[in-house]
Amino acid sequence: MSSPQRPYLVAAGLAALVIGLSGSQLAASATTVRPTASAPAPPASGVHDVVLAVHGGAGSLPRGSLTPEQEKSYRDGLTKALRTGYALIKDGRPVLDAVERAVNVLEDDPNFNAGKGAVFNTDAEHELDASIMNGKDLRSGAVAGVHHTKNPISLARLVMEKSPHVFMAGTGADDFALRNGVPFTTQDYFWTQRRWDQLVAAKGNPQAVRGGRRGERSEVGGTVGAIALDGSRNVAAATSTGGLTDKQVGRMGDSPVIGAGTYANNRTVAVSSTGTGEVFLRSVAAYDISALMEYARLPVAKAAATVITQKIPALGATGGVIALDTRGTLASPHSTKGIINGYVTEDGTITTRLYDDETPAE
Questions:
Q1: CA 177 from chain center: how many Å?
Q2: How many other C-beta atoms lie within 10 A of the C-beta of residue 189?
Q3: pTM of the model as a whole
Q4: Secondary structure of the chain in the HEC alphabet?
Q5: What does the alpha-carbon distance between residue 179 and residue 198 come to, in Å, rounded to a whole number?
Q6: Structural domain boundaries enclosing 239
Q7: Adjacent-strand bridge partners of 236
Q8: pLDDT per position as a tens digit, 203-255
Q9: Could you tell me whether strands 319-325 and 269-275 are parallel, antiparallel, or unpaired per DSSP bridges?
Q10: 6 part of a folded domain
Q11: In sequence order, what are the residues at sequence separation of 6 or more whose Cβ sits closer than 8 angstroms to the Cβ of residue 264?
C-alpha cells in the first residue's frame, strides 16, 4: 500500500518480601555472547567490567529469521551506538554525554522504534517520548508526545539543563526545542515503509495491538536505551521510543517517566526499561530495582530479576531491562523471549545479542 498524505504538524515493602526469597528464584539472565557465537550459560552475578550498555527493545528473534544483511544491519546499529558512547567515556566526557550520544545513534537508525523509524499512532502520526537521568545528582529531563524533534533524547537533556522543569510534553516541548535552537523536523522525516505496513496490519486487527500484550514488543526493533558508568563510578541512563503501533493519540508509556522507564543513582544503579509501558508505570519498575538494591541490599542481577521476571509478569505483562551497577556489573533480565541489546567492557570488547539463543531463558 502506498504511503498516505503524512501530517506536518512501594519498594520498601517489596524489599522486605524479597529478602526471604531463595537464590534460584532470583536468578538473573545476563550473559556474554560474541556477535556470531552461541550463548553460554548466564553467570548468576551478571556480566562484569561493563562501562556502557544499550538495548533495542524487548523481544528477540529465532536464529535464521533474519537474512545475513538484516542481521548485519541490526548488529551494526548496536555496535555503532556502543563505540560512540565508549569513545566519549574513554575521553573523560560525562556519562550523560555517553548515553545521550549512544541513544542518538539508535534514534537515527530506522531499524529501531525511536526517532527515524518510530511507529505510527492511530491517526498515522509519530509521537515521540524520551527521558534521561544523571546518577550523580538525580537531575532528570523528559519529553513526551513530541512531533517535530529529530532526537528526543537530546531535547530531554535540554529540558534538564536549560529549564527549571523535569517533564515537558506535546506542543510545549516542541516549542521549547525551537526556542533553544533545536532544528524543526517535519513528520515525514520519521516515516518508514516498514512502520506504515505495521500500522496497516494493526488497523486490520486492532485488538492485537491495543490489548497491551503485543504492540511494539512483537515488532522487533523497539524502544531504545543506554546506561553508562565512568571511572569515578558515576552512572547515567537514557531511554527513547515511538511508543506502540496504532496507539491512542496522546498515549504515553514508561519510557519518558523517571522511575518507570529510566532511573540512575550513583548509590545503586542505572536502568533503562522496555516492555508493556502501562505496567512498568504502575510498578515503578526502574526505581524498584534501585530500591531493592539500596534497602534490601540485593545485587543488581537479583534485584532486576525480581522486578522483571516476578513482579511484572504477576501484573500480567512482559518486558526487560538493562541495569548497570556502580561496579560495572550488568544485568539484562527479561520476561519476553529476550531483549535486543549490547554492551562494551572496560577493555573495549563489544558484544551484541539479537537471537533468542543469545539470551537464555530464566
A1: 22
A2: 13
A3: 0.84
A4: CCCCCCCCCCHHHHHHHHCCCCCHHHCCCCCCCCCCCCCCCCCCCCECCEEEEEEEEEECECCCCCCHHHHHHHHHHHHHHHHHHHHHHHCCCCHHHHHHHHHHHHHCCCCCCCCCCCCCECCCCCCEEEEEEECCCCCEEEEEEECCCCCHHHHHHHHHHHCCCCEEEHHHHHHHHHHCCCCCCCHHHHCCHHHHHHHHHHHHCCHHHHCCCCHHHHCCCCCEEEEEECCCCCEEEEEEECCCCCECCCCCCCCCCECCCEEECCCCEEEEEEECHHHHHHHCHHHHHHHHHHHCCCCHHHHHHHHHHHHHHHCCCCEEEEEEECCCCEECCECCCCEEEEEEECCCCEEEECEHHHCCCC
A5: 34
A6: 11-358
A7: 134, 228
A8: 987 655 443 333 333 445 689 999 999 999 999 999 999 999 999 999 999 99
A9: antiparallel
A10: no
A11: 133, 134, 135, 138, 227, 235, 236, 237, 270, 271
Is position 328 within any domain?
yes
The pLDDT value recorded for residue 83 is 98
Looking from the CA of 271 toward its CB, the CA atoms found within 13 Å total 38
| Cβ-contact 330, 47 below 8 angstroms | yes
Could you give phi then psi for residue 272, rounded to 5 degrees?
-130, 130
In 10 A of CB 359, how many CB atoms?
Answer: 26
Out of 32, 122, 185, 223, which one is annotated catalytic? Answer: 223
Whether 221 maps to a domain, the answer reads yes
Distance in angstroms (rounded) separating the CA atoms of residues 236 and 223: 17
Q: Smallest Cα–Cα separation from 163: which of 142, 145, 148, 133? A: 142
Is 268 a residue of the active site?
Answer: no
**Unique residue bearing C-alpha cell 504538524:** 9
Structure confidence by residue, pLDDT tens digits, 60-119: 777 888 899 999 999 999 999 999 999 999 999 999 999 999 999 999 999 999 999 999
189 within domain boundaries: yes
Q: How many domains does the chain have?
A: 1
How far is Cα 66 from Cα 60, in angstroms, rounded to an integer?
Answer: 11
The CATH number for 289's domain is: 3.60.20.30
